[in-house]
Write a structure and sequence with these properties.
This protein has about 260 residues and is mainly alpha-helical. Helix content is about 80%, strand content about 0%. It is built from 11 helices and no strands. Belongs to the binding-protein-dependent transport system permease family. CysTW subfamily.
Length: about 260
């Protein structure tokens, strides 16, 4: 009897886990299934299965241009966020710097501020400095949002780094810049690669900040949103499925790199 009651919490947690997993995966599964539907509307029954919608998406010039534009913005914001986040992480672990806790809190603030509030504040900021909406504003917004994730990952790696590595480099005549590029940066590489991949995913999927900061040229989320306004169709499901598969694959690779960085 005692064992039965002891196993009850585990059974309940397992049931909640599978229910939550079903809650997450069922809509995605239905979306992917509808992308193979042979009709122009999204509803059951599916009938015949077809890949025509994927062929149509890959021939859609607007979709391809939105993909390239999103990748360009993601690359620029990732480069900026990685550079800034690495510098902030180095500042936090440096000796003799006061207020490191405050620096860390301020660096991580964009990750905890609601997306809508962040987007509105960024829109007010670019209006204040007379920056027009468009590519530069989107890159700024995505960079601000991505910096905390780079800081956390780089900081975790830096705190596991043996201090005698940099000391040895300096004993051999290397200055701070050479020691950083020859010792610290190679040690940070796994964490930075993982952080950069997460930044790319955040940028490509970011809709709210892009909506407030973007111009007339649509990114991928904005294009899908615009198409949804005209009604759902299997073509939109095919677009979303392609984005889901690519981002899931990249995210899993980033998780692999993160786990490897923690064990090395």
């Amino acid at each position: 009897m005692r064992n039965m009651f002891a196993d009850a919490p585990r059974t309940t947690l397992t049931a909640f886990y599978w229910a939550f997993l079903l809650y997450l995966l069922l809509p995605l599964t239905l979306m992917m299934a509808m992308s193979f539907k042979d009709a122009n509307f999204v509803a059951f029954p599916i009938g015949d299965w077809t890949l025509d919608w994927y062929a149509k998406v890959m021939q859609d010039k607007q979709f391809l241009e939105a993909c390239l534009y999103s990748v360009m913005i993601a690359a620029a914001s990732t480069l900026a966020a990685t550079t800034l986040g690495t510098w902030i992480a180095m500042l936090i672990v440096a000796e003799g710097i006061k207020g490191q806790v405050i620096i860390f809190a301020l660096a991580c603030l964009p990750a905890v501020v609601p997306g809508m509030i962040s987007a509105i504040s960024l829109r007010i900021f670019i209006s204040t400095i007379d920056m027009p909406t468009g590519t530069a504003a989107i890159i700024l917004g995505h960079t601000v949002h991505a910096v905390p994730f780079v800081v956390v990952m780089a900081l975790t790696r830096l705190r596991s780094m043996p201090g005698n590595l940099v000391d040895a480099a300096r004993d051999l005549g290397a200055d701070s810049v050479v020691a950083f590029f020859r010792v610290t940066l190679p040690y940070l590489k796994p964490a930075l690669v993982g952080g950069m991949i997460f930044c790319v995913l955040l940028s490509i999927d970011d809709f709210v900040r892009t909506f407030f900061l973007g111009g007339y040229r649509p990114t991928l989320p904005m294009l899908i949103f615009a198409k949804v306004q005209g009604g759902m169709s299997p073509e939109i499901n095919a677009m979303a499925t392609l984005v889901l598969v690519v981002t899931a694959a990249v995210g899993l690779y980033a998780e692999y790199l993160t786990r490897r960085a923690r064990t090395r």
